[in-house]
Amino acid sequence: MAATNLAIGNAQDGSTSSPPAGLTTVLVIGAGLIGTSVALAISRQGVKVHLRDTDPSAALTAQALGAGTVEQPRGPVDLAVVAVPPAQMATELAAAQAAGAARAYTDVSSVKEAVEQASSDAGCDMSSYLGGHPMAGRERSGPWAAKPGLFEGRPWIITPTRATSAVTERSVRELIALCGAVPVVMAADAHDRAMALVSHTPHLISALTAARLEHLGQTEMMLVGQGLQDVVRISGGDPRLWADILVSNAGAVAGVLGEIALDLQRVTSALLAVASSCPSMLAQAWEEATVSLLDILGRGRAGHDRLPGKHGSPRQPFAEVHVVVGDNSGALARLLADVSAAGVNVEDIVLDHAMGTPSGTVSLQVSSAASATLPEALQALGWEAYGPLTELHRRNGGHHQ
User: Are 82 and 63 in contact (CB under 8 A)?
Assistant: First the structure.
């Protein structure tokens, strides 16, 4: 995929400083995960938030959570945030503009080009609308899954056009600042190509893998480990919403799937050749399959190593410390308190529940230096703690996931 030019922070000076305060009233249309999370975040910053949803119970739930009020504004608000699926966006935007609901409008859709075209075709005022997409979410949906800190430190893509007014862009940038996110400027088509690779196709691949489990026997399901859990985690999203997203970005997603299909066909053919080879041809088929697999697995490892680290910085080499923790109230909190008391910063944490026992393993990602001393410090406090797996262990037994 070709590199894409984008701008992070203020489009004029490249900074990430917040725009001048000005938003006092906001209408959130759609009280799902993202809409309610936006409302929670800005309500805590003193913004008066009005909530609207075609499902009254969703808006009432968001209100009960402290996200705002279901009482509708008596006049235009400063900004309307349309937080509905892509296929509904143009209709909702047109209706809100026709009613004079706000002085500026934005959305949170993960598809931009089709939404902008549909909005323009619907006769929307494109000068008062700026497309937006916060790069944050959860595998759960609905207002109960909302979190006020969901966008903290996360990229929030905006797709201004020549028609976008300066007032509209300032309002949307202030919304982003109030949510603690970082504005990233992209063209709509570049955004959609990027999302196809980094978001939309991965969700579909996750769902395709999870679908293989639908009729798996209970005994086999007991063998599921953290590796598969990681792969299928995002497949728990709302199927209707994701079908809408995938169809709305059909061309870009199909392009990525086509590339993956070529790799899959190559690997499948190589493995079938091994499985069906006669004894005299087995060695050659085995060697050819290994070459194909090493190429694809190596490219996968290279792509993995390009993933950014915390706050978008380059990935740092961390080591894992493994601790056995009982499945009882307060155990994890005590462990993290003891790690903090040892002066160690935890970069990431993974919980792997043990099968058949009321305990599990907590894997703590820490600096290489800390991994050399933390296990002993925790052992002295009564924890069953182990240092990073050795390379020999990884080769002999560390492949189980």
Answer: no
Nearest to 375, CA basis, from 316, 322, 313: 322
Give the model confidence (pLDDT) of 341-351 as tens digits: 999 998 888 88
Of 12-26, 48-62, 171-185, 370-384, minimum mean pLDDT range? 12-26
d(CA 282, CA 305): 34
Residue 200 vs residues 99, 192, 308, 342: alpha-carbon distances, Å: 33, 9, 19, 41
- Look up residue 94 and give its DSSP letter: H
Confidence of residue 380 (pLDDT cuts 50, 70, 90): very high
Mean pLDDT score of the chain, rounded to an integer?
88
Q: Which CA distances in Å does 286 have to 261, 265, 273, 399?
A: 22, 17, 8, 21
The CA distance from 62 to 40, in Å, is: 8
Q: How far apart are CA 168 and CA 381, in angstroms?
A: 57
Q: Taking the model in full, what pTM does it have?
A: 0.77
* Residue whose C-alpha is closest to residue 37's, from 160, 104, 135, 131: 135
Residue 199 DSSP code = I
Work out the number of other CB atoms within 10 angstroms of the CB of residue 112: 27
In angstroms, the CA 1 to CA 193 distance is 8
1 Cβ partners below 8 Å, 6+ apart? 193, 194, 197
- CB half-sphere exposure, 120, CA atoms < 13 A: 13
Burial of 297 (0-12, 13-18, 19+ CB in 10 A): exposed
Residue type, 67: A
- 3-state SS class at 379: helix
